[in-house]
Amino acid sequence: MADQNAPFPVAIIMGSQSDWPVMKVAADMLDHFGVRHDDRIISAHRTPERLHAFATGARAAGCKVIIAGAGGAAHLPGVTAALTTVPVLGVPIAGTALAGQDALYSIVQMPGGIPVGTLGIGAAGAKNAALLAIAILALEDPALAQKLDDYRAQMNADAPHRPQ
Question: Which stretches does DSSP call E strand in 29-64?
């Protein structure tokens, strides 16, 4: 059983409660692999002090990867990346008339020197962000690397060979 006081290797942050259905996909994937995560609502616009405290303290708190989901102007991943050297994976969330394209462009167009790993819009992006976080953690965790290898092998085995 995991030590409940141990640091969370992954943080999932999002700008508002309405982002949770998409970000829960990342949380569920991390759960599937047994990766502990800390899920928080932190807005770059409504709670900037909370964001600053979280991001500047993430490394010291034991966080190894941050998954940040945001829609609209989608400043959360970029501002987070500007405040920490912990890898930040950005998930654009559709929530405006532009169906998440505005968030995608905001996250992917970071200035040189402040990287954000940008994933696809929505649930697929959240799932891939979790899998990328797992791959990063697996670099130093052979058991987790084996789980990831097994997951990929099962995905390959489950893929049909012919249309049905």
Answer: 37-41
